[in-house]
Automatic annotation (TrEMBL):
It catalyses: L-alanine = D-alanine. Residues 253-377 form the Alanine racemase C-terminal domain. It is an enzyme of class 5 (isomerase). CDD domains: PLPDE_III_AR. Its EC number is 5.1.1.1. It comes from the Bacteria. GO terms for molecular function: alanine racemase activity; pyridoxal phosphate binding. Pfam families: Ala_racemase_C, Ala_racemase_N. GO terms for biological process: D-alanine biosynthetic process; peptidoglycan biosynthetic process. This is Alanine racemase. It comes from Bowdeniella nasicola. The keyword Isomerase applies. SUPFAM superfamilies: Alanine racemase C-terminal domain-like (SSF50621), PLP-binding barrel (SSF51419). Pathway: Amino-acid biosynthesis; D-alanine biosynthesis; D-alanine from L-alanine: step 1/1.
């Protein structure tokens, strides 16, 4: 089945970006592939990243981690996951069977994982001795104000984890809050993280995974790299601060485009779209079959631009659920079926659209809906 829109995912660019980031650090790279690899397609992207050298990847939601584990069937990288609830008992058991690494952000998570392992042991012929320990990364809040225990409470969590049967503490992790705009905050978080690492080592933890830096830290703060860095958005050729990725030698991975479904001449004074928020001069209008149901942010109405052939065209009027209208200009040669590049190589950037919508590049790609097919190219050319 064909569609009038498509997101073309260039795996050569993805592998290139992995290599650029890996080349900037002595740490191992843990690609973050949450939210369907930031809208790019989870399983194909993980396959490319694994071939490029990734030994472990991170996925936020436990359900998505299990989907990935089932698709890889033991053949891919280690999977680290960090968002789950104590009520997801069956999923926790399945994840332990699959050998996932878990974040432990507090004592409740330690208890939930321990209970899930005990439930599996009760079913196993050899009991608890037949099961390998569960690898966990203890989460510390060094200044984000989000997940993890406060730094002053970390020693108690470390001690509890070490005293829990069937738990193998393999890592300590945290997250930077302002890596893209405030070096002083990053330095304070780094100092706190270093202190917790020292406390963990003094308690007897062998830390195979110490990770604080996401994309911003990986690109701009080498002191935060430790054993692993966790780039997400930068892998897909979008900068954390929406600056030009070419300056960091990164390439956009996604090109979003759609075929024009109508082209028509209209007279001066024609009002356009819902609410008649915009009136155009005599011009040619085109309809792009993507709308807010597909993730096109309505705040970009009358502001964002696309490229059709050699020309850019501005969105006019309000973005609708399934389509939006563009002003092709009075002398446009465009015809129905011509491709409008919404963002990516050959057109505006994701960050251009983010600025038009008053948001960030992360949101633009992560919200791209399932009605838009992902077409994967260059999967055999890392």
């Amino acid at each position: 089945m064909s569609y009038p829109s498509r997101a073309i995912i260039d795996h050569a660019a993805l592998a290139h970006n992995y290599g650029v980031i890996a080349g900037r650090t002595a740490a191992e790279v843990m690609p973050i592939v949450k939210a369907d690899a930031y809208g790019h397609g989870l399983v194909p992207c993980v396959a490319t990243l694994h071939r490029a050298g990734a030994a472990i990847v991170g996925v936020a939601q436990l359900s998505e981690a299990l989907e990935l584990a089932a698709a890889l069937d033991g053949a891919g990288p280690t999977i680290f996951t960090w968002l789950y609830s104590p009520h997801q008992r069956a999923e926790l058991r399945a994840a332990i069977r699959a050998g996932l690494h878990f974040s432990v952000p507090d004592h409740w998570a330690l208890a939930a994982i321990s209970q899930a392992r005990a439930d599996l042991a009760a079913e196993a012929a050899g009991g608890a001795d037949a099961l390998p320990p569960v690898a966990v990364h203890l989460k510390v809040d060094t200044g984000m104000g989000r997940g993890g225990v406060l730094a002053e409470d970390a020693p108690a969590l470390i001690a509890a984890a070490l005293d829990t049967a069937g738990i193998d503490v393999v890592g300590i992790w945290s997250h930077l809050a302002r890596a893209d705009d405030d070096a002083a905050t990053t330095a304070r978080q780094e100092a706190t993280f270093e202190r917790v690492l020292a406390e963990a080592r003094a308690a007897g933890v062998t830390i195979d995974y110490a990770h604080l830096a996401a994309a911003g830290g990986a690109l701009w703060h080498p002191a935060t790299h430790h054993t692993h860095v966790r780039p997400g958005i930068a892998l897909y050729g979008i900068m954390p601060d929406d600056s030009d990725p070419a300056a960091a030698k990164l390439r956009p991975v996604m090109r979003l485009e759609a075929d024009l479904t109508m082209v028509k001449r209209v007279p001066a004074g024609t009002p356009v779209s819902y609410g008649h928020t915009q009136t155009v001069a005599a011009t040619t209008l085109g309809i792009v079959p993507l709308g807010y149901a597909d993730g096109m942010d309505r705040h970009a109405s009358s502001r964002a631009r696309v490229r059709v052939g050699a020309r850019e065209a501005c969105v006019v009027g309000r973005i609708c659920m399934d389509q939006f209208i563009i002003d092709l200009g009075p002398d446009s040669p465009a015809e129905p079926g011509d491709a409008a590049i919404v963002w990516g190589p050959g057109g505006p950037s994701v960050s251009d659209w983010a600025r038009a919508a008053g948001t960030i590049g992360y949101e633009m790609v992560a919200r791209l809906g399932p009605r838009v097919p992902r077409i994967h190219i260059n999967e055999d050319k890392p």
